[in-house]
Design a protein that fits this description.
The complex is a heterodimer of chains A (315) and B (270).
Chain A: H1 17-56, E1 58-61, E2 64-68, H2 72-80, H3 82-112, H4 119-127, H5 134-144, H6 151-158, H7 175-200, H8 204-212, H9 217-246, H10 248-254, H11 266-276, H12 280-304
Antiparallel strand pairs in A: 1-2
Chain B: H1 3-31, H2 52-60, H3 63-91, H4 99-110, H5 118-127, H6 134-138, H7 145-156, H8 160-168, H9 173-184, H10 186-202, H11 205-210, H12 219-227, H13 230-233, H14 235-254, H15 256-269
Helix pairs in contact in B: 1-14, 2-14, 3-7, 3-10, 7-10, 7-15, 8-9, 10-15, 12-14
Classes of the chains: A mainly alpha (315), B mainly alpha (270).
Chain lengths: 315, 270
Amino acid sequence: MVAAGKETDDGTVPVTGWWQRKRTRERIVVACFLLPSLTIFFLYRVLPLAWNVLLSLQHWSPLKPARWAGLDHYEEMLLYDEVFWQALKNTLIFIAVSPLAIALALGIALLVNSNLKGAAIYRSIVFLSYPLMTVAVGIIWRWMYDERGGIINFALRESGLIAKPIPFLQSFDWALPSVIVAEIWQVLGFYMIIILTGLQSIPPHLYEAASIDGAPRWAQFGRITLPLLRPSLFLCAVIGILNSFTSFDLIYIMTNGGPGHATELLITYIYKSGFGQTKFDYAAALTVVQFVLLLALTYLANLVAGGNAGSLEPR
Amino acid sequence: MPRRRTFLRHANLIGICAVMLLPFYWVLKTAVTNENIYAYPPRLLPEAPHLFNFVDVWYFIPFPRYLLNSFIVSALVVAGNIAFNAMAGYALTKNFPAKRAFLLLFFSCMLIPFQATIIPAYLITSQLGLLNSYLGLAFPLLSTIVCIFVFKAAFEAVPQSLIDAARIDGLTEWHIILRVLLPLSKAALATNVVLAFIWSWNAFLWPLIITREPTMQTLPLGLARFLSYLEDTTGALYAFAVMVLAPSIFVFLMAQREFIRGLTSGATKG
């Protein structure tokens, strides 16, 4: 990984023995220090990615020797598997709703980002739901949506909006929106924090100059705030995309993909195929499709945001 | 700012915060309620609040066992993150051949969500013989890229002359990290601890996959398992939820600044 210090120094100074030894030693240190992290990332990031592709092209199960399958799994998935298409649709709906959440977070961030008394407290409260265990969050929301003891049905009935309680999580129409609301509740604070960081990096003199020129507040928002917030908003969009591919915990606890497959996401379907039905090879093919989609959507979001606006690139 | 606008802002924010806090109130209220929680209409205030449900959780399910498992895994993850991330962060402050390639490798690893690796990760862990073990539970989380870069940035802020002086004094590289760099990077250290703890404490999918024995399960798994007995647990389930949420709320409130710094530096720097 690290070349021994045999080659001559880049500079014009003639190489001394001491210098060479020091450089060699330093490279060995670098290699040793990187090794643990690299091992972990190799075993749990890089290798799985490659293995997924390989598995998806094989007929494979734990106790039988592997057979070459070519594109059989992909053919089955794309042509015959209705659940796959349902899961894909739900995943895309999850993504499509995230701009709404980002807009909401932008509104809250604008409210909080001022010399308002107690702004820090409001910020903490909005952010509080983000670092919590999603399993517990799912249980809380299940309970909020409950047909009998849930506060949401209670509030709707008391205010006269509905006559009969709605079994939110058991209904084909309501299950997906209900889960999405819970998801937004949890991630909203994170969006807000990212947007706040962006807002605070906008130099205040821009607003001063605009005020002197007589630009009204809405024009300042449209001409200064929004354009300069683009990287932050793009980052939120990427996180929204990522979340729709990864929010396994919430779905598993709240509906387990049901009723039917009304709230099935690709990730829950991958879990069910792999560990429920031990179709590891098919689950690997699903993962490959999911990962390619994720990369494509991230790339697309990057294009929309105007080239390299995102900050996922190394700087 | 005009008074009316300030007032409107406060009113809006209080409304938003009430909505954000409502789930917390509802679960807390249910956890301390003794009555039939399915009765309609539900009471908005708990009638004769008590803590029996919490005692129930402690004794009727192996809660102490889940707690112990969660603590061991979290401790392993926190220790691993501090050691490995500090080492890697330090290595990345140096110049060496192919450094750009390594940086690119780290950044591209960040694009691979853990959820996209579960099938092979399970097979790899089973090959390593680590299914149903603490090390297996902790392994994928032992080092995190975001935190490596948090350390790298903190170490780069330490003056080079200080490091050179330490080296002339005969300190080994390991001691330079331990005695010079880490004491000067307390904020980065705190960020590492907080993020590693929260991530491992909340992890659900990975433990769900690799633990089959109840004795190795962590709190989120215990909670999910308890949920499947819902009909005869009721109030206790929500007491359980409150008990697992408490440590992360506590850690978050204690180290909010470090937590947010870690997340946003991860978000803006890579």
